[in-house]
Design a protein that fits this description.
12 helices, mainly alpha, globular, 3-stranded antiparallel beta sheet, 4% strand
Length: 357
């Protein structure tokens, strides 16, 4: 162990170079992992009922850009220094903002989950092709066994439609009664009226809602929909604003830290106000469970602000050093605390580890 310590002290530059090399290697491995995971998660051809073809996998693009940004930061810090690396990071954040805006538009202006890495999908419903109302609107049968679009379920088959089996106990009872009535009617009919031809099964297709446009959201969802769009756009551009302010004022200035926190609070405040306004005005703007979890995740990301300068240098680091001094005499705890301090200080110097973007 002493020989290793002596070798590290004599070759400090080499050790630091190896540490800097580990970051881009880890980022490149992350890119390969993201591509492989996308291939695994992608549905195989012919196994999907709906042909949801997406020209560009935006979630994969965002994941790759995040890993590329880590490589860009290490390379820029090595070749141009800490002060000039922010110009390169600003370019990467601008590209990420553009990609997220494209993903936001492609998703039908739905909330971006985990910065656009996860697709915000809605549950699909099935519709029987022969069921259309007088106004041409199809009767939709979701998986709870009840009709939608203002139509009543007919009682011609299982739970009202042939080929559809309800999961509810009442629906199955009605289906059994309908089946018994059909069998009794067939037994009472003359033999010559029966047909041995098989009854064709109604075609089942997946109802895919059309993607809303800015005009439709503007008119249908009113002020709540407009506020939702504004809150999401503000959230998308927050990292770019933060990096541009660091580039102008420096990492030790409070201006980027405070403005970034203010933008974060503004975005979540707009989302909350849009939801409340929707409930009061009777407009339909309901968040899914995934979107509510996303808002909770964004609030948890506020913890990263204690790891960003100048808050870290002035407050967090000071309290961590006091804790290290208190725990240092304890044999095992002191060693672990000192290693944790080294790890936190190393992580804190990397923008990509604490940016939350």
């Amino acid at each position: 162990m002493e020989a290793y310590k002596l070798w590290v002290r004599k070759n400090r530059d080499l050790v630091r170079s190896l540490e800097n090399l580990a970051n881009p290697v880890y980022a490149l491995l992350g890119i390969v992992s993201s591509v492989n995971q996308h291939i695994i998660d992608a549905p195989a051809e012919g196994h999907s009922l709906a042909s949801k073809e997406q020209t560009i996998p935006w979630g994969l693009v965002v994941s790759v850009l995040k890993d590329v940004e880590a490589v860009v930061e290490v390379a820029a810090q090595h070749f141009v220094g800490d002060d000039r690396k922010w110009s390169f990071l600003a370019v990467t954040e601008a590209v990420k903002a553009g990609v997220r805006l494209a993903a936001f538009r492609e998703s039908g202006y739905k909330m971006l989950l985990q910065g656009g890495e996860v697709v915000n999908e809605e549950e699909e419903v099935t519709v029987l092709e022969e069921n259309f109302g007088a106004n041409g609107v199809p009767v939709i049968y979701p998986m709870n066994g009840h009709s939608q679009n203002g139509h009543k379920v007919a009682s011609n088959g299982l739970d009202g439609k042939n080929g559809f089996v309800s999961k509810s106990l009442e629906g199955r009872a009605v289906a059994a009664l309908n089946k018994f009535g059909q069998n009794a009617k067939m037994m009472s009919d003359p033999m010559w009226t029966r047909r041995l031809q098989p009854t064709p099964e109604p075609a089942v297709m997946v109802v895919e809602k059309p993607k809303p446009t800015l005009a439709s959201i503007w008119s249908a969802k009113g002020a709540s929909g407009r506020l939702f769009l504004l809150g999401e756009v503000v959230h998308i551009f927050r990292p770019l604003v933060y990096v541009l302010l660091i580039r102008k004022f420096g990492i030790k200035s409070w201006t980027p830290w405070l403005v970034s926190l203010a933008v974060e609070l503004t975005s979540l405040g707009i989302h909350s106000h849009a939801t409340d306004l929707s409930h009061r005005g009777g407009k339909v703007l309901q968040l899914s469970s995934a979107e509510r979890d996303e808002l909770k995740r964004r609030k948890m990301m506020w913890a990263l602000y204690v790891m960003r300068d100048p808050f870290f240098a002035n407050y967090t680091k000071r309290h961590l050093q006091k804790a290290e001094e208190v725990l240092n005499p304890v044999p095992l705890i002191g060693f672990l605390t000192s290693k944790l301090m080294e790890l936190l200080e190393g992580v804190q110097t990397r923008y990509t580890y604490t940016s939350g973007s």
